[in-house]
Specification:
Bound molecules: ligand TLP
Radius of gyration: 20 Å
CATH topology of the largest domain: Aspartate Aminotransferase, domain 2
Number of domains: 2
Strand content: 15-25%
Oligomer: single chain
Strand order of the largest sheet: 3-9-8-7-6-4-5
Largest sheet: 7 strands, mixed
Length: 352
């Protein structure tokens, strides 16, 4: 639910719109605090310890956003002029404002993402540079799980392992943008740690489907996290009494992971209803996690922005991906009985 100038919307634009639960707000009010840049905020320290345990990594650092988590990771793994291999549909390449080049001087080597969010092994292998003074030095591979622009696709533990083994063989590091790694984990009934095991570092977000208001966590070895902590400071991400928000993050990790299956069920139900509407194609049906991508056929006589505007007039907010694609993201604050309203709103928007 989202309120704009007094009007209430069913907000499916993203799971980033989720508000904190009452339990989170209470924990935030009661959190024990200290100066986190001195390492003295007990609530942040606890969140970092719990996060490292969940991912089975040595250490963790709390960061304000997924974008900063990925950037701090890439700055900690790479020096200026080094190259990172990443998907052409990855969030880091598409939606992080070019931060790795602008702030880190890191050269992005984009390679095609496949529909299932993976990058073919031979493509990764072919992108690794030879030792030649003409070339940047390949330092890092980045993967994303779930994969946002690939429709919330989930990467398997087997795929993660095979890329991890390849990286090791070549002396490269592997970073995982696991903004929604818990969605990937519950969708496959595996632990997030298993998915992250082959990665040297992993970022995950507390502020998306887990409903915390702010924050992400970057996990890795002790040595890596101390470098990432310095990168966070350089980026202005040292947050002082950050326990206020870390407290919500702790509840997110304790209470909000297992229930993500409910979001996936609701996404399947919505996708099924939408797939029966003529002129609309559900790109991945059933959806692999909590995202539904819709393609709109020309026959509809509406482009994606026009359809989104009509849906807004009917109380439903959706994301416009491009001229004929929409994204609908399911989350905690969408109630089961709102699904039929969304399906009805789409039918009405198309017919009128
Ligand atoms: N994604 C947002 C938008 O930026 C597109 C969304 O609404 O989905 N990695 C992945 C895979 C993401 O989807 C996002 C956010 C991030 C990183 C960045 O997280 P934040 O917004 O916390 O910087």
């Amino acid at each position: 639910m989202n309120v704009e100038s007094g009007q209430t919307f069913i907000d499916l634009r993203s799971d980033t719109v989720t508000l904190p639960t009452l339990e989170m707000r209470t924990a935030m009010a009661q959190a024990e605090l200290g100066d986190d840049v001195y390492g003295e905020d007990p609530t942040v320290n606890e969140l970092e310890r719990i996060s490292a345990d969940i991912m089975r990594k040595e250490a963790a650092v709390f960061v304000p956003s997924g974008t900063m988590g990925n950037l701090a990771a890439i700055l900690a793994h790479c020096g200026r002029g080094d190259e990172v291999i990443l998907g052409d549909l990855s969030h880091t390449f598409l939606y992080e404002a070019g931060g790795i080049s602008a702030l880190g001087g890191v050269h992005p080597r984009t390679v095609p993402n496949q529909e299932d969010g993976t990058i073919a092994q031979d493509v990764i292998s072919g992108a690794v540079r030879d030792d030649n003074p003409h070339f940047p030095i390949t330092r890092l591979i980045c993967l994303e799980n779930t994969h946002n622009r690939c429709g919330g696709a989930v990467l398997t533990a087997e795929y993660m392992s095979s890329v991890g083994e390849f990286a090791k063989e070549k002396g490269l590091k592997l970073h995982l943008d696991g903004a929604r790694i818990f969605n990937a984990a519950v969708a496959q009934s595996v632990s997030a740690a298993e998915l992250a095991r082959p990665a040297d570092s992993v970022t995950f977000c507390l502020s998306k489907a887990l409903c915390a208001p702010v924050g992400s966590v970057l996990c890795g070895s002790e040595q890596f996290i101390s470098k990432a902590r310095r990168a966070r400071k350089q980026l202005g991400g040292g947050m002082r009494q950050a326990g206020v928000i870390a407290a919500a993050g702790i509840i997110a990790l304790q209470k909000m992971i297992d229930r993500l299956v409910e979001d996936h069920e609701k996404a399947r139900e919505l996708a099924l209803g939408l797939s029966q509407i003529e002129g609309i194609r559900v790109e991945k049906n059933p959806p692999p996690s909590n995202m539904i991508f819709l393609s709109i056929t020309n026959a509809l006589g509406l482009n994606a922005s026009q359809l989104a505007q009509k849906l807004k007039e009917n109380g439903v907010l959706v994301g416009v991906v491009d001229v004929n694609r929409l994204r609908l993201v399911m989350h905690y604050w969408i109630h089961n009985d709102e699904i039929s309203h969304v399906i009805g709103a789409v039918k009405k928007a198309i017919s009128g």
